[in-house]
Amino acid sequence: MASISPASEQMAISLRGVHKHFGALHAVDGVDLDIPPGELFGLIGHNGAGKSTLFKMMLGLLAPTAGSILVAGTPVGGRHFRAARRQLGYLPENVVLYDNLDGLETLHFFARLKGAPLQDCPAMLEKVGLAHAGKRPVREYSKGMRQRLGFAQALLGKPRVLFLDEPTNGLDPQAIRDFYATLRDLQAGGVTVIITSHILAELQERVDRLAILASGQVQAVGSVQELRERTGLPLIVEVDMAPEDCHEALHALLATTGAKPAQTPTGLQLQCARTHKMAVLAALAPLGARVRDLRLQEPSLEDMFFGLSA
Ligand SMILES: Nc1ncnc2c1ncn2[C@@H]1O[C@H](COP(=O)(O)OP(=O)(O)OP(=O)(O)O)[C@@H](O)[C@H]1O
């Protein structure tokens, strides 16, 4: 059994040497992870990478084959975990709802299971934008409404740690904005959020840090910026200019970055090291207004994901 250090106890979530085997399949294969309180943490990985299995172990729903897990300072599966579990909120990937209950009855049902006050339920419906639908049976809810209701049940009991498995599935763009605004409010109150999503562009702008999981192992952990630095993927520079100016710009860029730009219908395109960003600007400065437009494209989370999880 891996040991738990005092530093681990300061963490909202701390995993040491965590494995989960299903027969010969190593669904989670030696994961170490620390998530401090108040962090919005993303967990990404291909289908079958082990994200949901990891979630279920952190929630005490599945016992690890090996390793130790602390959530909210309490060993998962230990004798104090039952009480600590009240501090956790969970939105599963496929939330199970009873079609014959209405929205408010659904929340009452989950509140009873969690030991949360029933009088909080109307406010939770309001928080997820379902106040108007509280008396409608869940069978009439759209996919996005069901997902919002699932989020509302996860928020019952004022959890200190929230586990959200693909929470924005089925949400429209406005609902996704509202959802992340709610998460930011919760974070400001010290709530830790761990979230999975396959929509990498959405996470890229919002998480504080993330882990890339592949075949049950953590391939990289850090902020999007830290992962950019670590992967060393190139910066893409697009310069719009008249064809007669391209020759001069091409030579200036080649001399400062060592990378040869390609000519495009609208000007030049260059792939160069991220550390050459300022050199690119310096090389183009003498051309002044002859540079009609300039776009610098940093590697996206998707680029890094393919680089690190392959
Ligand atoms: N109860 C189980 N019995 C056997 N194998 C399982 C069980 N639960 C999960 N697995 C296997 O463990 C691996 C990890 O599954 P998991 O659901 O954790 O992946 P995931 O990263 O959440 O995938 P997805 O993005 O598709 O939701 C998969 O190969 C899956 O088939």
Automatic annotation (TrEMBL):
CDD domains: ABC_DR_subfamily_A. Residues 13-240 form the ABC transporter domain. Keywords: ATP-binding, Cell membrane, Hydrolase, Membrane, Nucleotide-binding, Transport. The keyword ATP-binding applies. Signal peptide: none annotated. SMART domains: AAA. One of its GO terms (molecular function) is ATP binding. Its EC number is 3.6.3.25. Belongs to the ABC transporter superfamily. PANTHER family: ABC TRANSPORTER, ATP-BINDING PROTEIN (PTHR43335:SF4). This is Sulfate-transporting ATPase. It comes from Alicycliphilus denitrificans (strain DSM 14773 / CIP 107495 / K601).
